[in-house]
């Protein structure tokens, strides 16, 4: 009998978009994390359970082997780093882009041309640092944990680095996208040690995920 496999997911779009892939492997999750308070969800497979964690915590659970595998956005993985993780499959789900945005009236191109020092709020400090360093733009990065869009509106920052999908959030807050930093989708991440030692147990799931 093979040992339990633990899959780490976050609720919301990642859980919702991962379900159909599990279904392709004949696996259903017995409870809905939106309504259940349980953090450990059994599945129709006695050898597979799902744990529900914050999106940005998925790599941590997998890195330390508390989950054998997980699904996380490239934004989260790039920020966390790949220590102890193996990312064999880009699932092409939860797609969006990471962009720079400013207030509608702000002339970003001109500020950059003038060599101005920009204040930027973001949850993605590492990716923002790399982007502006590559462009040779001087920035003071201020870390926020949410509602980045507010920063430029109340004078905390000149610009934000955040995820954009429809652009509606930016529009609703009189912000405009001025640069796309990267295209983002979610990847399957596997604990490196588990990938080596439990390959046979994990293979059916890896196959199901790679069929997308
Ligand atoms: O919400 P929580 O703080 O727990 O964590 P989270 O926001 O990281 O989790 P979640 O579930 O919202 O996002 C999980 C993953 O989905 C992210 O890591 C991304 O890889 C991916 N994803 C895809 C997105 C979006 N699209 C997205 N639009 N994550 C966030 N957004 C947010 C964005 O930050 C902005 O506030 O939606 C807003 C913009 O959306 P539009 O459609 O108005 O442009
Ligand atoms: Mg969110």
Offer a concise description of the structure.
It contains nine helices and nine strands. It has 212 residues and is of the alpha/beta class.
Note the run of SSEs as H and E: EHEEHEHEHEHEHEHEHH
Spatial ordering of strands, largest sheet = 2-3-1-4-9-5-8-6-7
- Sheet with the most strands, sense and barrel status: 9 strands, mixed
Helical coverage, percent range:
25-40%
Distance between the termini: 28 Å
Radius of gyration: 19 Å
Q: What is the correct CATH architecture of the largest domain?
A: 3-Layer(aba) Sandwich
Q: Which term fits the overall shape?
A: elongated
- Give the bound compounds: phosphoribosyl ATP, magnesium ion
Output mean pLDDT.
Answer: 96
Query: What is the CATH class designation of the largest domain?
Result: Alpha Beta
Kindly identify the CATH topology of the largest domain: D-Maltodextrin-Binding Protein, domain 2
- The CATH superfamily of the largest domain turns out to be Periplasmic binding protein-like II
Structural class: alpha/beta
Q: How many β-strand runs?
A: 9
Uncertain runs: none
In terms of DSSP E residues, the strand content is 25-35%
Helix tally? 9
Query: What's the structural domain tally?
Result: 2
Protein name: ATP phosphoribosyltransferase
Family: Belongs to the ATP phosphoribosyltransferase family. Short subfamily.
InterPro entries: ATP_PRibTrfase_cat, ATP_PRibTrfase_CS, ATP_PRibTrfase_HisG, ATP_PRibTrfase_HisG_short
Main location: cytoplasm
């Amino acid at each position: 009998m093979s040992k339990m496999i633990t899959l780490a997911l976050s609720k919301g779009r990642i859980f919702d978009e991962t379900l159909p892939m599990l279904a392709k492997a004949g696996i259903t999750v017995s409870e809905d994390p939106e309504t259940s308070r349980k953090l450990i969800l059994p599945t129709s497979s006695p050898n597979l359970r799902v744990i529900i964690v914050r999106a940005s915590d998925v790599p941590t659970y997998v890195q330390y082997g508390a989950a054998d595998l997980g699904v996380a956005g490239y934004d989260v993985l790039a920020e966390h780093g790949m220590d102890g993780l193996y990312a064999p499959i880009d699932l092409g789900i939860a797609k969006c882009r990471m962009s720079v945005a400013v207030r509608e009236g702000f002339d970003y191109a001109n500020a950059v041309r003038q060599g101005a020092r920009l204040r930027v709020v973001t949850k993605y400090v590492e990716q923002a640092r790399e982007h502006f360093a590559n462009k040779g733009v001087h920035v003071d990065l201020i870390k926020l944990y949410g509602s980045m869009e507010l920063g430029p509106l109340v004078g905390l920052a000149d610009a934000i680095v955040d995820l954009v999908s429809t652009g509606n959030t930016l529009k609703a807050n009189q912000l405009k996208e001025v640069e796309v930093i990267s295209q983002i989708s979610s990847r399957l991440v596997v604990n490196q040690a588990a990938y080596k030692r439990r390959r046979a147990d994990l293979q059916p799931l890896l196959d199901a995920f790679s069929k997308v």
